[in-house]
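Dig into what follows:
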Amino acid sequence: MPLQQHHTPSTGPSRSLPFAGVTNFRDLGGYTGHGGQQVKWRRLFRSDHLAGLTAQDQALLADLGVARAVDFRGQAESAAYAYRLPGVAYHPLAIEPTVVQRALELQRTGRQLTAQDAVALMQETYRGFVHDNAPRFAELFRLLLASDAPTVFHCTAGKDRTGFAAALILLALGVPRDVVMHDYLLTNALYQRPPGMGSQAPEEVLRVLWRVQEEFLDAALHTVDNDYGGVQTYLVDVLGVDAAAQKELAGRYLQP
C-alpha cells in the first residue's frame, strides 16, 4: 500500500486521517502489544458513521485499501444514514442505542435529565455491551480472524460501541489498559457533534452523551473483571477467542 512506504518506523503514519465527511476516523496501529510488537498500521480503523463521505474521502478510503466496513449502528440509525461504498464489503452487526431510548423514557416521566443521570445511563450502556451485545463483538473477532484485509468498524459517533470494540481488539493484542484508555479518550479531541443533535436536552447533558469519559469504558472493563474474571476469560469463554485464535490474531495484526 503506497501510504506505508514514506513513513519511518520512528514516527509512523498519522493516526487521525483527513476525511471531510467524518471527524473520528482513526488508525489503531502503532500501539505496543504482546512481546513488544507493534499493532500493524493501516489494517484496523475505527470511525464515526460513513454516510457523509465525499468523493475525495472515498478515494482516500480506497488508497488505504479498506475492504470491509463493520457497522454497529441500530436499525433506525443505519436506515436514516445508509451508505454503500464501492469495493467495500458491508457487515451490519446491529447494537441498538439504548442510552438514547432510556434518556427519552426518563424525560417522558417528566424528569429533567442531569449530567449525573447521563453518566449513569452511559455506564449502564457500557455494561450492556459486555453482557447483551457479546454476540456482535464475537462476530467482529470472527471477521478479523477470517482475513486481515484492512477493515473499518464504526457506529454513529464512533465513540461507545466502537470504543468498546477497539478496546477489546487492543486488549486481545496485548496493549496495556492505560494505552487502551488513551486511545479511547482521543474521541474527545476529534469528534465533532453534528449541529442540531438532541437540542431538547440541556447542554451539560449533551456534553456527557456526545463525549467519552474514563468512567464509561471503566464500567465495561470492571464488568468484564467482576463477572468473568478478566479480559482473558471473557475473550475465551464469551467471545470464543481462544488461545489459538489469539495467536492467530497476533500473527495477523502485530508487526513481527
